[in-house]
Amino acid sequence: MQRPIKMKTIGILGGMSNEATAEYYKMINAEVNKCLGNWDIAEILLYSVNFGNIEYFVRNKKWDEAKNI
């Protein structure tokens, strides 16, 4: 295999918890590593939202504020 390996960078939107986001990241990288082996992992940009803000708006029925997040 010739180095550097050319990959496309993917973007993922994190889950509604850090545990879910970590699981997505782990699953994606496991598949890339299975295909390429060695130390290879995906090139990823990750965006997460603070679920505490969303939970607050939902609990207090502030739907417009939740929508804006």
Characterization of this structure:
With 69 residues, the chain is mostly helical. Helix content is 49%, strand content 12%. The protein is built from 3 helices and 2 strands. It has helices at residues 18-36, 51-59, 63-68; strands at 10-13, 44-47. It has a two-stranded parallel ribbon with strand order 1-2. Strand 1 (10-13), helix 1 and strand 2 form a beta-alpha-beta unit. It is elongated and about 55 Å long. The termini are far apart. 0% of the residues are buried.
- Give the overall shape: elongated
- Could you describe the largest sheet, including whether it forms a barrel? 2 strands, parallel
Radius of gyration equals 17 Å
N-to-C SSE series? EHEHH
Distance between the amino and carboxyl termini:
43 Å
- Beta-strand fraction estimate: 5-15%
Q: What is the overall pLDDT average?
A: 91
The total count of strands amounts to 2
- In the sheet with the most strands, the strands line up as 1-2
Share of helix, binned:
40-55%
State the low-pLDDT regions, or none: none
> Total number of helical segments?
3
Question: What layout of secondary structure does this protein have?
Answer:
Layout: E1 10-13, H1 18-36, E2 44-47, H2 51-59, H3 63-68
Parallel strand pairs: 1-2
